[in-house]
Amino acid sequence: MEKKCLECGDEIFGRVDKKFCGDQCRNLYNNKLNGQNTNYIRNINRILKKNRNIMESLCPNEKSKVKKDKLLSLGFKFNYFTNIYETKEGRRYYYCYDFAYLQLDENWYALVKKKDWVDKD
């Protein structure tokens, strides 16, 4: 029984359980299979990292206050964050990894860096 490569359709020689004629076809097949999901995740991670880097650049002493317009002008996207921490008083800190922002009023945000970032659950 002649086996065909799943990517190019060429005849396969060698092991009985072999699915591809070579590494190139195997890589192409798997890249096509996983490409869309990988790109989606990669784009979200890029936005999260950019948000974090913006906060880091504006928060040199682990705490600062910044205008919303400044964040937006640097490309900050408020809809992307890694987690939310709510205080007992009901304040919500939105984290991008180890940096967080807290809305103080309509135009001002507090930026903070979390020193010990280990989830103790």
Write a concise keyword list for the protein shown above.
single chain; 121 residues; alpha+beta; 2 helices
Low-pLDDT parts are none
Name the shape in a single word: rod-shaped
The number of helical elements comes to 2
Q: What is the rounded Rg?
A: 23 Å
Helix content: 25-40%
Number of domains: 1
Strand order of the largest sheet: 1-5-4-3-2
User: What's the helix-strand series?
Assistant: HEHEEEE
For the biggest sheet, the summary is: 5 strands, antiparallel
Q: What gap, in angstroms, lies between the N and C termini?
A: 55 Å
Quantity of strands, as a count:
5
Question: Which structural category fits the helices and strands?
Answer: alpha+beta
* Strand content range: 15-25%
Structure description:
By secondary structure, this protein is α+β, with helices and mostly antiparallel strands. It is 35% helix and 21% strand. It has helices spanning 23-58, 68-73, and strands at 63-67, 83-86, 92-96, 99-103, 108-113.
